[in-house]
Amino acid sequence: GFRAPDQPYLVGTFTAFILIDILLLVLLVAAGTLLWRVDRRGRVLSNWVFGLEIFVFFFTPELSFGLMHSAHGLALSMAGASGIGQMGTALQILTLYPVIGLIGLNLCYRRVGAHEKTPEV
Fewest C-beta atoms under 10 Å: which of 17, 67, 70, 73? Predict the structure, then answer.
């Protein structure tokens, strides 16, 4: 297999990033299915998934940078794998979809919730 001397954990970090992306995408599909059925759990799950995507986007480079002095090989492996290992959610992050999705979904939910709370005559 491929081994870069300065990135000894490249394969492991790539695998971890792929697994995290798959998990996020599966949860996003599940949330979308619940939203399609107008199930309130879809909103909760979507909020969690979008929040996790934003967290992973900001946490990964910070962790990699933080490890630069104590675990140089791991930090370089994370940096090397982050571009290719996060392709499942990369387009979402580039288009700010998690942020737009969070705002739009919660604004729509408030509007739907306001209509549901009106008493029937």
Answer: 70
Distances (CA, A) of 15 to 18, 38, 73, 79, 84: 5, 34, 16, 13, 10
pLDDT at 119: 52
Coil/strand/helix, residue 7: strand
d(CA 78, CA 16): 10
| pLDDT number for residue 9 | 85
H/E stretch holding 76: helix 72-85
Q: Which amino acid is at 20?
A: I
Residue type, 91: L
Residue from 84, 65, 63 nearest 10 by CA: 84
- Which residues make beta-bridge pairs with 4? 7
